[in-house]
Every structure is written in C-alpha cells, then in structure tokens.
Amino acid sequence: MLDTSVYEVEFEDGRVESYYANQIAECILEESELDSNISHHISDFVDHRKTDKALTEDDAYTTVKGRKV
Prior knowledge:
Elements: E1 6-10, E2 16-20, H1 21-35, E3 63-64, E4 67-68
Antiparallel strand pairs: 1-2, 3-4
C-alpha cells in the first residue's frame, strides 16, 4: 500500500529529518533482510497528529490502469 504519511525522525545525534512512512518501512525491511535474524523495533512515535490535510479512508484511492481502486 502507498502510505503518504510524513514523519519527522530524530536521530541519536539530534538531527531531525522528514521521511514518508513507506521510506521508513523500506529501510526497516532492508536492514532486517541484511541481518536476517535480527529484529528491529521502533521505540517511539512522538507528537503524532492528523491535520485537516490528511485524507479520510473514503477519500483515499489508488489509480490502476486508469481506474480508481
């Protein structure tokens, strides 16, 4: 699924960058595949909020071959 949620990620060195949820998931999956038997856990989601710009489930869709799905 395409998730367009954007999260601010704070690194251990204090640096903060914005990433899409899919980017975060891909990095976790890639790292897990490299380490094969090491599991990774996200420690916290801090200050999560939903603004009026967020889509509702009724308004969200994906286009496949010119058709809304």
